[in-house]
Amino acid sequence: MKNLKSIAIALFLTAGLTVSAQTKIDAAKSVIKWTGHKVTGEHQGTVKFQDGTLTLKGGKLTGGAFTVNMTSIAVTDLTADQGKDKLEGHLKADDFFGTDKYPTAKVAFKSVKEKSAGVYTVTADVTIKGKTAPATFDLTVGKNSATTTFKIDRTKYDIKYKSKNFFEGLGDNVIYDEFDVTVNLVF
C-alpha cells in the first residue's frame, strides 16, 4: 500500500511537469534567403544551415540555437555569364564573410516572448566573423516549420566594404549596411 501511494504521488507530480523538448531542424530543407541592397540595385541569394534546434516546452517556443554554413552562400539572381561566380567568391572573401577563416555563423536565442498564438518575439545573439551582436525578430512557429524576416547590419560584424559610414566618395558604389534575411526552418 505504501509503494502504491508513492507511485501515485510520483505519477501525479510527473503529470504536472512540463517537459522541454529539443526539435532538430531538417538542415537540408531549411534555408536562409538574403537580399543585399546597393544604390544601383540589389542581389539575392541563399545560405544553408549546418544544424539547429528549437526548444519547445508545453508546445510553446522557449529557445533555439543554429549553425549556418557560410561556405554555402549562393547568389540566385545572376547566372554564370552575369558574374554569379565572381560575386559568390567576393562574398566568401575577407571583404565580406571571410569563409576560409569563419566557415560558420551562429544564432543563439537569449529570450523568447509569446506575442500571439504561434508568434514569438525572439532576441538572439548572432555571431558572424567571430563578432557577436543581438538581433530581435518575430518568429512564426507552425506544426513543422518556423519563419521570420528581419534585417542584419553587416557593419556590426566588421563587414565594412563600400559602406558610406566608413568610406567617403563612393557615389553610386555604396552598398547599404543592412541586408534582409528570410528564414524558413523545417523540422
Structure description:
- This is YceI family protein.
- The chain is mainly beta and 187 residues long.
- It has one domain: Lipid/polyisoprenoid-binding, YceI-like (Lipocalin, Beta Barrel).
- The protein contains 2 helices and 9 strands.
- An 8-stranded antiparallel beta barrel has the order 2-3-4-5-6-7-8-9.
- About 6% of the residues have low confidence.
Overview features:
187 residues, mainly beta, Lipocalin, 8-stranded antiparallel beta barrel, 2 helices, 9 strands, 13% helix, 54% strand, globular
Write the layout of secondary structure elements.
Elements: H1 2-16, E1 20-24, E2 31-38, E3 41-57, E4 60-75, H2 84-92, E5 104-116, E6 119-128, E7 131-141, E8 145-153, E9 175-186
Antiparallel strand pairs: 1-3, 2-3, 2-9, 3-4, 4-5, 5-6, 6-7, 7-8, 8-9
Helix content: 10-25%
CATH architecture: Beta Barrel
So what's the CATH class?
Answer: Mainly Beta
The run of helices and strands is HEEEEHEEEEE
Instruction: Give a count of the beta strands, DSSP E runs of length 2 or more.
Output: 9
Global morphology: globular
Query: Unreliable stretches, pLDDT < 50, 5 or more residues?
Result: 7-18
Query: How many distinct domains?
Result: 1
CATH superfamily: Lipid/polyisoprenoid-binding, YceI-like
* Total of DSSP H or I helical runs spanning 4+ residues: 2
Biggest sheet architecture: 8 strands, antiparallel, barrel
> Based on helices, strands and strand pairing, what is the structural class?
mainly beta
Strand content: over 45%
Stated plainly, the CATH topology is called: Lipocalin
Radius of gyration: 21 Å
Strand order of the main beta sheet, please? 2-3-4-5-6-7-8-9
- N/C terminus separation: 45 Å
What is the average of the pLDDT values? 90
Pfam families: YceI
InterPro entries: Lipid/polyisoprenoid-bd_YceI (IPR007372), TTHA0802/YceI-like_sf (IPR036761)
Keywords: Signal
Protein name: YceI family protein
